[in-house]
């Protein structure tokens, strides 16, 4: 049960009374007449075989206010794509599955590569970007939400509360971020947000002062959540990273494009759990290690665009400050866990902080070594200018895949 406290410079919408889901959905039904809604689901094929997605689809099948569901499918061969079409066929809403590894969508990607407009690496960012392009091409939705496909604790209230601030015509929000407590099975989770992002932001404040961008990021209770919603006009100018910096990149784009009174966050779940990444110490190509580097780079890049100057000495100071701040946070988290009868692995927490501290310097060195890097996927406005018919071709390719392989 949330409180009513407003922190930071964006609005926080709380779950104060646990309204009946039927009331929320009835209002969303009414809102949908003026603001039709679409849901984007970026998915790996492996998630169709995992413990979460089957239940998510069962819950979504009960939702009547959504006009369209767009599923981005990664890492699937032809047989797996056929299975995915069957798997999602029980959704009663209009739905489309983008086979990102199929020949038709690869041909679309090749066209963009030849113009220097394609995502540079595979991953969630690329998947989401193509799904958003499809939503724009479809033109059916005024409000769009996105959530992950590995949520073990999913119920449809999460989606209703995520959509509500954007779908309600009486609200003026352009973007909404979901937040929740990362507690499951008697443990405190969410290591990257707790032990990297918040301590890093507080450390940067100590070094550079109370820059508004840092205050803005610090306003989000769970900045790395994969759940957010937005109005359609947000999509045209949205430039997102293709790596693990996606969530921070999206927040940075909202800060660049909109006044903070058009942005909000909403409590969408009392309990939330999903698959957990390994720490991957010693392997910067995956797990929380790569995630921490990509996220740190995303923050440094944004600060640089605001005029902050970084040097090797700066990053050494950031590392030292971060390490002290993060260790203090561990003590706070430990006491919070003990008071609530939860487990918190003190040794594992400090191991994570040691890894993240080293990766902050790695991220800084990468940033300094490659200052001309263009990390963002181009906006769909730019794509439409360079390739006016591409969105239509994308929709035709998706429809042709569905027709050919659903037999």
Give me the Rg, rounded: 21 Å
The major β-sheet equals: 8 strands, mixed
Counted by DSSP, the helix tally is: 15
Strand line-up in the sheet with most strands: 1-10-6-9-5-2-3-4
The average pLDDT is 92
Judged by helices, strands and strand pairing, the structural class is alpha/beta
Order of H and E elements = EHEHEHEHHEHEEEHHEHHEHHHHH
Strand content: 5-15%
Report the uncertain regions. none
- Strand segment count: 10
Shape: globular
Determine the fraction of residues in helical runs and give it as a percent range: 40-55%
Span between termini: 48 Å
Tell me about this structure.
By secondary structure, the chain is an alpha/beta fold. 51% of the residues lie in helices and 13% in strands. Strand 3, helix 3 and strand 4 form a beta-alpha-beta unit. Helix 7 packs across helix 12, helix 10 runs parallel beside helix 11 and helix 11 crosses helix 13. The radius of gyration is 21 Å and the shape is globular. The N and C termini lie far apart (48 Å). It comes from Spongiibacter thalassae.
């Amino acid at each position: 049960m949330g409180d009513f406290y407003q922190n930071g410079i964006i609005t926080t919408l709380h779950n104060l009374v646990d309204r009946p889901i039927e009331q929320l959905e009835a209002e969303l039904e009414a809102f949908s007449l003026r603001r039709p809604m679409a849901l984007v689901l970026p998915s790996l094929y492996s998630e169709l075989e995992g413990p979460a997605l089957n239940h998510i689809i069962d819950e979504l099948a009960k939702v009547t206010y959504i006009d369209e569901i767009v599923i981005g499918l990664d890492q699937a061969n032809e047989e797996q794509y056929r299975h995915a079409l069957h798997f999602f066929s029980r959704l009663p809403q209009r739905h489309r599955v983008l086979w990102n590894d199929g020949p038709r969508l690869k041909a679309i990607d090749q066209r963009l590569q030849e113009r220097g407009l394609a995502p540079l690496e595979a991953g969630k960012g690329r998947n989401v970007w193509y799904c958003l392009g499809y939503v724009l091409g479809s033109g059916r939705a005024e409000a769009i939400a996105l959530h992950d496909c590995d949520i073990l604790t999913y119920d449809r209230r999460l989606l209703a509360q995520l959509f509500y601030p954007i779908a309600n015509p009486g609200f003026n929000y352009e973007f909404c971020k979901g937040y929740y407590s990362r507690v499951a099975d008697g443990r405190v989770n969410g290591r990257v947000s707790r032990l990297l992002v918040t301590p890093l932001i507080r450390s940067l404040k100590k070094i550079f002062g109370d820059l508004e961008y840092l205050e803005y990021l610090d306003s989000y209770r769970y900045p790395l959540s994969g759940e957010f919603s937005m109005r359609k006009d947000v999509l045209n100018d949205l430039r997102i990273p293709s790596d693990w910096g996606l969530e921070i990149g999206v927040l940075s784009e909202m800060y660049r494009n909109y006044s903070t009174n058009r942005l909000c966050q909403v409590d969408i779940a009392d309990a939330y759990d999903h698959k957990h990444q390994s720490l991957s110490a010693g392997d910067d190509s995956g797990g929380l290690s790569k995630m921490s580097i990509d996220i740190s780079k995303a923050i440094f890049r944004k600060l640089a665009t605001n005029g902050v100057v970084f040097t090797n000495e700066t990053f050494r100071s950031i590392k030292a400050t971060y390490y002290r701040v993060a260790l203090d946070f561990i003590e706070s988290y430990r006491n919070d866990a003990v008071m609530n009868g939860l487990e918190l692995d003190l040794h594992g927490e400090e191991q994570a902080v040691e890894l993240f501290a080293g990766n902050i310097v790695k991220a800084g060195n990468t940033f300094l070594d490659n200052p001309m890097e263009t990390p963002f996927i181009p906006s769909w406005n730019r794509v439409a200018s360079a390739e006016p018919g591409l969105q239509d071709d994308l929709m035709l390719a998706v429809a042709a895949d569905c027709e050919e392989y659903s037999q």
